[in-house]
Amino acid sequence: MQAMNTLLKNFAKCSAFPFAVQHGVKKDLFPLRRTLTLSSCLKEGSSHSASEKLDLDEWKKVMKSGVQEASEEVSEHQELSTVAAAREAVEMWRLAGRAVPENISDDQLKTLMECPSKSSKKKYLKFLYLKELYKKNDKRKMEEKRERRLQTQAEGDSKPDDIKRNSFICSWASAMDRACNWRVAQSMIFGQPLVFDMSFENDMSPREVANTVRQIVFSESCNRKSMDPFHIHFCNFQDNSQYNREFIKQYREAWDNLLITVTEQCYTEVFPKNKIIYLTADSPKVMKTFEHDKVYIIGSMVDKSIKTGVSLARAKRLGLETARLPLEKYLFWTSGAKNLTLDQMMHILLTLKDTGDWRKALEFVPKRKYCGFVGKSVTDLRKTLNVVNTLKLGKGGQEAQKRQFAKNYSKKLIHE
Q1: Where does the record locate the signal sequence feature (predicted)?
Q2: From the CB of residue 276, how many other CB atoms can be counted at a distance below 10 Å?
Q3: CA-to-CA dists, residue 81 to 86, 87, 109, 241, 261, angstroms
Q4: For the range 383-386, what are the long-range contacts, defined as Cβ-Cβ under 8 Å and sequence gap of 24 or more?
């Protein structure tokens, strides 16, 4: 019986049985298998034991495994033929001028065959086509860039003077940058402190905070390029504040390398109160001269709604001395509030620190806010005021206001 099982197993694997299964006649072959089994049993004898029944079950398992292997081979053959057919269809579409990729892998073809509808197949092929097109464009740009670089190198070899000039400019810029960093580093040890009060976040909108940070960035850049820079302090600065987020957005990786002092402490805890002067446009006291032994405080605030007295009230609560710039003493102010931006204040203070000249310092005030300095003649100032008022008020009407305006400035000039 064991020999018979081996023979039938070899017959199932090596005979025409897989061929019959592949061509769909496997159902008709099962009676033949039963006949062979019965005929072999009749030749050996009519008596069957329990062991022979077990051998027959084992034979069924062997036959079923052969059918499974044959069906797997058939399905693999059908899958390969379907992928080949899909590739031929894609090639035909490409030759017909449709937006299909030139090179498509077997995995992409299988994904294409899994698409449920014709429109989804078209969209998938168009996606592959655009992806291939982008890769070709990137490759072409890289090659053009390489050719330009080689051409520039070749031209540079023929023009050594230009290369020397460019290298000199680059080395000069890096040397100036190192010199500026050295001066700012020295100011952190020996320089005069200048404090930005960072406690006004709750008094501004997010847009005003972002504008404030941009002005402080300009101020820091101006101070860094100065011959005698300030030692900048950020006091009342919180790590979880919007100020911090905006500074990181502006400076990125350079924020941790800035040569400034950032602290959560109040300026009254860092410096003695008798050395602090809070600069605010609302102060009743006019600043006469720049004092090099004082610590000037600037409120880090951009107030679009002109909330007067905010910084002055904060200085009074802390018992600090306040001061405002002498704008009316040196300038014929025409219109607008006497509030300046933070970078304009930085320019003015740096100029006062270097020269002590108010006229040079106040040249950083926007020209639209005043019509000239006090030192000019009355006639020239009246002509300037008439032109300004004509542009503001129009040619007709309100002549009395224009005359009164010029008269007040004339009296002021005569008294001074």
Answers
A1: none
A2: 22
A3: 9, 10, 12, 65, 73
A4: 384/332, 385/332, 385/334, 385/409
Identify whether the C-beta of residue 258 lies closer than 8 Å to the C-beta of residue 233: no
Question: Which of the 8 DSSP states describes residue 203?
Answer: G
pLDDT digits (tens, 9 = 90+) for 344-370: 999 999 999 999 899 899 989 888 877
**Could you give phi then psi for residue 258, rounded to 5 degrees?**
-70, 140
The residues facing 296 across adjacent strands are 194, 277
* Choice between 241 and 384, residue whose per-residue pLDDT is larger: 241
Within-domain flag for 342: yes
The set of residues, in sequence order, having a beta carbon less than 8 Å from that of 137 and lying 6+ positions away, is: none
C-alpha distances in Å from residue 172, one per residue of 124, 175, 183, 212, 223:
55, 5, 16, 32, 20
Report the Cα 78 to chain-centroid distance in Å: 51
Query: Whats the size of the chain, residue-wise?
Result: 416
- Predicted confidence at residue 398, as pLDDT, reads 53
CA dist., res. 406 & res. 379, Å (int): 10
Contact by Cβ (8 Å): 256, 290:
no
Cα distance between residue 233 and residue 262, in whole Å: 6
Lookup result for tokens 């960072």: 198
Which residues neighbour 117 within 8 Å (Cβ) at sequence distance 6 or greater? Answer: none
Instruction: Tell me: do 131 and 209 sit in the same domain.
Output: no
Q: Which of 124, 76, 82 has its CA nearest to residue 99?
A: 124
CA-to-CA distance for 412 and 402, rounded, in angstroms? 16
Please tell me the distance from the alpha carbon of residue 388 to that of residue 371, in angstroms, as a whole number.
Answer: 8
Q: Choose the final residue of a domain: 137, 152, 167.
A: 152
323 in helix, strand or coil?
A: strand
Among the listed residues 299, 391, 376, the one whose alpha carbon sits nearest the alpha carbon of residue 345: 299
At 260, which amino acid appears? Answer: I
Distance (Å, whole) CA 290 – CA 377:
28
- Do residues 209 and 347 share a domain? yes
List the structure tokens of 30.
């099962």
Token pair belonging to 255: 């924020």
Report the CATH number that the domain containing residue 350 is assigned in CATH. 3.40.1280.30
Q: How far is CA 290 from the centre of its chain?
A: 41
Contact (Cβ atoms closer than 8 angstroms) between residue 307 and residue 208: no
Range in 44-53, 81-90, 99-108, 256-265 the model is least confident about? 44-53
Residues 290, 241 share a domain: yes
How far is the C-alpha of 216 from the C-alpha of 211, rounded, in Å?
9
